[in-house]
Amino acid sequence: MPFLGQDWRSPGWSWMKTEDGWKRCDAWSQELEGENSQCDIGHGIILNSEDEEIFSNEEHEFASKKRKKDHFRNDTNTQCFYRENWIYVHKESTRERHGYCTLGEAFNRLDFSSAIQDIRRFNYVVRLLQLIAKSQLTSLSGVAQKNYFNILDKIVQKVLGDHQNPRLIKDLLQDLSSTLCILIRGVGKSVLVGNINIWICRLETVLRWQQQLQNLQMTEQVDSGLTLSDLPVHMLSNILYRFSDGWDIVTLGQVTPTLSALSEDRQLWKKLCQYHFGEKQFCRHLILSEKGHVEWKLMYFALQKHYPTKEQYGDTLHFCRHCSILFWKDSGHPCTAADPDSCFTPVSPQHFIDLFKY
């Protein structure tokens, strides 16, 4: 066996570039900490939950190999994740770059923690978490799984605080609890990263969140200004026509008798069916009333059980086919194409997962 270094099992030294040239990194030396404090930090910054410690990418890669058991504990106060607006998606090794980008790595590096605070990206992130909970949870690395539950905790606390979008979170937690029950009871610890007790603790946390959302009470705010009931009927009707989810229409119709009547408009449900489904699907699930009229509202919920509905998001991730870069639409990325806009493709939550299937 050839001699590779001081320890033949060692993966090699980590190096960093300084003004005096390349120097070897020693994660535990005080000299390195003094040098790093003077180095510029690029877009690949890693922050913990308290934003108290800042490390460079090279240090994090070295420290991740030496991480302590605390990284595997179910403690949301020790989370560690990147805050990048774009990442390079490489699926194979080249002469310049080794390895490939995984779903867990992309989930760690992209800025999902801040995205949930943006109302345009909130639904997108929730839908992505729901798809991961259904089929991709065990494919995430240990750190990615930990960040997954950390971000989920932030989402639940946000909903409990502002009372917005509780139905979406209830559906997400329902799918996640079902998956965790199957993994813990049916599959076992052979496919789970970390101690089985951690997963049991996570399941108990999800059940507690479900109970908190179940007990959530919407408080009525007393305001002397105009309310939704004060708007003219035609404006209320226009608001209902802006919804793309039938359950949102049903929920809004429970607010006042006027909205209840408007939410039963046959033309409203017809437009909704035509937006989400095609004519061939109508013929397969046609529902008629006793008078021979099409029951568009019943048809919508019947078709929803058999076919996926179109998804609408205010801001989504985009993929640049020229640069192979995944980025948030509003943030952009340093594209080298002559016509960058022609290379951009919107990435749905399902497409995001499909990007990392090899």
What does the model show?
The strands form 3 sheets. The chain has a 4-stranded antiparallel beta sheet with strand order 6-8-7-9. The chain starts with 14 loop residues before the first strand and ends with a helix. The protein is 46% helix and 9% strand. Among the domains are: 103-215; 245-306, no CATH class. Helix 3 (103-109) packs across helix 6, helix 7 (166-187) packs antiparallel against helix 8 and helix 12 runs parallel beside helix 14 (296-306). The longest helix is centred in the middle third of the chain and has 22 residues, at 166-187. The chain is an alpha+beta fold. Mean pLDDT is 75; it is low at 1-10 and 27-79. This is F-box only protein 25. Pathway: Protein modification; protein ubiquitination. One of its GO terms (cellular component) is cytoplasm. Keywords: Nucleus, Ubl conjugation pathway.
> How far apart lie the N and C ends?
34 Å
Class computed from helices, strands and strand pairing: alpha+beta
Helix content: 40-55%
Q: Enumerate how many helices there are, as a single number.
A: 15
Characterize the biggest β-sheet.
4 strands, antiparallel
Low-confidence stretches: 1-10, 27-79
Radius of gyration: 25 Å
The helix/strand order is EEHEEHEEHHHHHHHHHHHHEEEH
* DSSP strand count: 9
The shape is globular
Strand residue percentage: 5-15%
Overall average residue pLDDT: 75
Largest sheet, spatial ordering of strands: 6-8-7-9
Organism: Bos indicus x Bos taurus
Keywords: Nucleus, Ubl conjugation pathway
Protein name: F-box only protein 25
Subcellular location: Nucleus
